[in-house]
Amino acid sequence: MKYALLANPGHNRVYFEESKKLAAAELELALPCLSVPCGDILPAQIGGVYYLTFSSEAVLTASDLAILSRLSFVYAIFEENMREGRTAFFPCEMENYAYIGEDIGTILKYTGKTNELFTRMMINCAVFASGAREFTGKRLLDPVAGKGTTLFEGLVYGMDVYGVEIGDRAVAEACRYLQKYLQMGKYKHSLKTERVSGAGKTFTAERRHLELARGREEAKRGEYRIFEMVAGNSCYVNQFYKKSYFDFLVGDLPYGVQHGNVTNEGQTKLSRSPAALLQACLTAWRDVLKTGGVLALAWNVNVLPREAAERLLESAGFTVLHGGVYERFQHRVDQSILRDLVLARK
Ligand SMILES: C[S@@+](CC[C@H](N)C(=O)[O-])C[C@H]1O[C@@H](n2cnc3c(N)ncnc32)[C@H](O)[C@@H]1O
What domains sit in the chain, N to C, each tagged with a CATH number? Predict the structure, then answer.
């Protein structure tokens, strides 16, 4: 069998061009999660349009198509067949997986925002690298959450999402935006805010906890999803959350360049340098991740080379996923940012 995936042109042309190689890598990580052996990933121009094609040893099942539907670049899936001596494309049924409107991650625009499709790709890569096929109800933490792009994308996947962000204003804005979005969409929701502090006032932070359900019926059945943000320093994450609380950690580290920070405040050295941040936080991040859980981090290799990032991860007790596809995520974002993605398992 042969399949062709039509790539979503996305919201950003520059990102689309760079994302072609990321798409192939994301697909390569997804294929082992399908129920039949697949391979031969190839780019193709079909009718003048860009596709990624691959072969499979048997017809894909509905749950395989559900996995492919979630890939960040996939717009449509076709099964390729011969009809009357010519190649014909048959559209496959995509899964409508979105728990909440997919526009939730695209409406807010601000300097330093992580591209939503890239963010979705990071979440997918973390899930596939862990060997999981399920997203719904899994706990996802972004330890450097900014104004919540990872959390919004995780919510689209039906995950329970948590973020830690040092900038209080970014946290307040993300939560205000979500509340407005939920009000307009008539979701059932409630917000609780509490102060958190460490023993002997070593730190103080503020936790905003939102529970949401898509209507009265889900609320009655107690089917709530969680969106929570802590305005505080990520190095204390193991004091905000229990050990082994999260299935996945996904984050886009500060870029170490002028516009790489979305908080507009408290721009300490720590929040600028990814190396200092990793040194201060990785042990705590490891504590709150489940054994077998995966951490996916994006960062600017111009300010922290990949080998140095890997060394920091290994010395904090993570197992970095090396070689092959795991080293095919590097791409240019702009003149000063050459971004990479590292995946590491606890
Ligand atoms: C590249 S931005 C993340 C952007 C985010 N993905 C978004 O789209 O809004 C990195 C974030 O890490 C935050 N940060 C830096 N140091 C931190 C720390 N020690 N604890 C928590 N957050 C921190 C910065 O304030 C910044 O918002």
Answer: 2-91 (3.30.70), 102-345 (3.40.50.150)
